[in-house]
Amino acid sequence: MTDTERNRLLFGPYQAPPLKRGDREFCLVRDAPVYVIGISKGRIPWPVCLPVEQPRRGRGLLIDDELARAVRHESALAVAYWWGVHRTAVRRWRRALEVTKTNNEGTHRLVLGAVQDSLDSRFGEGACPYPPRGRAAVWTPQEIALLGALPDAELARRTGRSLPAINKKRLALGRAAVTGDGTLYHERYWSAEEDKLVRNLPPEEAARRTGRSAHAVHHRRAHLGISGSKTQLNRGRQAGR
Predict the structure, then answer these.
(1) Deepest of 62, 146, 148, 214, by most Cβ within 10 A of its Cβ?
(2) How far apart are the first and last CA of the chain?
(3) How far apart are CA 51 and CA 104, in angstroms?
(4) How far apart are the C-alpha atoms of 5 and 14, rounded to whole Å?
(5) CA 7, CA 74: separation in Å to the nearest integer?
(6) Model pTM?
(7) What are phi and psi of 88, to 5 degrees?
(8) Element containing residue 24 per DSSP (H, E)
(9) Which helix (H) or strand (E) holds 98?
């Protein structure tokens, strides 16, 4: 991965707020009102500010919604490069905004790039001892917006991602799964008709008929005291004869 590729912004462009010296704004990292004292000289010029209240320490860039968006989605390396700050400052911003290595797309991309560089050095460029996954690991903003808004199975069909990958990403974002009619799973109670299907049909068929996941059906069967699938039960009855 070249330096240009490492520093590439994934979710730009980013527009600086139209502020001038003396203007007041609220800084998300400082969690306090600040006033603008100038404009930075980074590749993306940005307002530089100081806290309004005493003691007026902590001169630095204004972390508004736009720069916070960059901190949440871009790698620390890219933010430091484009905004002209030290990476320690970016790490401090990330801590304040609860950004980690696991919920940041830019960092994830760099980690994958480092892995690929290592594989290239060992097995030759472009070569890999493992079969291709067939899907980009970095989630796009459009895909992230659909997590929890569509059923996992529907999102898997649209994006080509696996159900475990979708479930893992959705849980990482703290979003609940939804049913086919858009109802949150934890808000959907089992009806008597659904329980009847669970009791009399194999789990896979009951899941298809009720629109629930196979895991939910198996959990409901355990709650109802049902063990084994209908096929297994029939086989047991035939063997008893």
Answers:
(1) 62
(2) 68
(3) 28
(4) 18
(5) 9
(6) 0.51
(7) -65, -35
(8) strand 24-27
(9) none
